[in-house]
Amino acid sequence: ADMRTEISTAAAFVTRLLRAAGGVGEEQLRCFRECLQEAMREHYKHHWFPLVPSKGSGYRCIRINHKMDPLIGKAAGMIGLSHERLFQLLPSELTLWVDPFEVSYRIGEDGSICVLYESPQPGGKAAKQLESRTSCKEEWRIGRSSPSKSYNMMTVSS
Fold first, then answer.
1. Residues 6+ away with beta carbon under 8 Å from 87
2. What CATH class has 3-118?
3. Domain coordinates of the chain in residue numbers?
4. Which of 57, 104, 150, 154 would suit a FRET pair with 5, their CA atoms being 20 to 30 Å apart?
């Protein structure tokens, strides 16, 4: 099953977070992105279900929450970045969902869920309308720490 767009979107997002933090060269970032894409392709190979996009979602979830996600850790190791350095560069709490037809993320446990990529499912319902994008953009700009509890959870209903 083709998952190139979803994987490419997710890897580009994590790479952008690293670039925004600074201190990592462009060549290292390019290598990191390629290594992360390869690790994800391998990891998701038998866990990609376009007919049932939510199936296997937990398995495909990339998570940093006081523990470094093994896929990010592996790609970072290839360019010589330690877990300690990654924790300094990336948000301390990040959840990235990589599913068929949708890639979304949340920074902080109480942050808004922001959609990075969405495509209508073949023969499925039309794509969901995305709510406020500015809050998501602001969050990842600010987003080094968890957002305050005053953030509202963005719910997306279908």
1. 64, 68
2. alpha beta
3. 3-118
4. 154
Amino acid 46 reads H
Burial 72-108 (b: 16+ CB within 10 A, else e): bbbbbeebebeeeebeebbbebbbbbbbbbbbbbbbb
Kindly tell me the sign of the dihedral angle through the C-alpha atoms of 63, 69, 70, 73: positive
Residues 4-53 have pLDDT tens digits of 999 999 999 999 999 999 999 999 999 999 999 999 999 999 999 999 99
Q: pTM to 2 decimals?
A: 0.79
Over the Cα atoms of the chain, what is R_g? 15
Rounded to whole angstroms, the Cα distance separating 49 from 46 reads 8
Q: Which two tokens stand for residue 50?
A: 């376009």
Q: Which residue has the tokens 């719910």?
A: 155
Which residue do the tokens 């499912």 mark?
121
**What residues contact residue 28 under an 8 Å CB cut-off, 6+ apart?**
79, 80, 81
Q: What is the DSSP letter of 123?
A: T
